[in-house]
Amino acid sequence: MNMCGKKEGCETSPKTCGNAGGRRLVVLGGGESGAGAAVLAKKQGFDVFVSDFSEIKPKYKALFNKYDIVFEENQHTENLILSADEAVKSPGIPDQAPIIKKLKEKQIPVISEIELAGRYTKAKMICITGSNGKTTTTALTYHILKEAGLNVGLAGNIGDSLALQVAEKEYDYYVIELSSFQLDGMYQFKADIAVLLNITPDHLDRYNYEIQNYVDSKLRILQNQTEKDAFIYWNDDPVVSREILKRKPAAVLYPFAEKKTAGVKAYIEDKKINIETSNDKFIMEEELVALTGTHNLYNSLAAGIAARLLDIKDENIRRSLSNFKGVEHRLEKVARVKGVEYINDSKATNVNACWYALQSMKTPTVLMLGGTDKGNDYSEIESLVI
To answer: CA distances (Å), 362 to each of 325, 341, 379, in order?
Structure first.
């Protein structure tokens, strides 16, 4: 069998195959991702079973009941799971989980919800990943496309499940935030426009504390791209630039950087952002961009290139970059008490994200940190912390 569970030799593309033929699909994890996958699979004719080792939220139980989907919670019943023709797992479940190991031992394909959803839509996919900035860039790109009047959905790590949207709606475009965990479970899926913002050490506890394993996961965003597709990336990132030279992507390259150099398509010059594509040149003053901080200028460059590639008019891009409200928990100004501004940056979940946040501060700042270590090097922020 190939990764869509069909016999070898089937001429139907996994992206357009609508014939589930009663095959059994097991969904592991009954949250947003799993619920969407279950509904889509049910509507496509699969025999669906959902299993969650924890308790399932009431809203997802209601969704399963609405679509007559069999599910269990607080356990994994192995004989019901290992009878699958194919399994979809939540990105939060590591490959080292016992039930995943047993599925793979039986050579049962294990895919992501994104991989499943991609089979049943012809919409153009704008896919965004990176260690930092991907949520902001995804939200900003979606904002530009939506404001320009495109029929667009927001999915992945942000917004509703891609699979649920494919099951219940008809969009022409999707802007999708992809984590390394989601990319790990993608095989036939293809990004029409792929965006890679940066790669810094993160989630190393899931990658055997080997940075290259994490890098390889991020670069899966390039898989299946052809010369008809586009790849947008930060040229100043040493890891990204090294991997591009090594892998030689098939897609048309659109690097962005702080300064204009040979081949760079978007850059900052004379306090203006400049974006050059085959569709002419876009220029906008830095001070008019709603988001603050150097890292957000990079995010704006990436989103701007994607918008230009979709032929969105300059005035629409300029207006959207000026009125974007930002994303919750990312340098979010939440209160001012006795002259002290309180900023919520709780989505800065790795050291590099914290560095960018501190670097953007223009006044004396008290830093409060917490959370679980993921194998990061904290010396990166020493120079910014007294």
So the answer is: 20, 12, 21
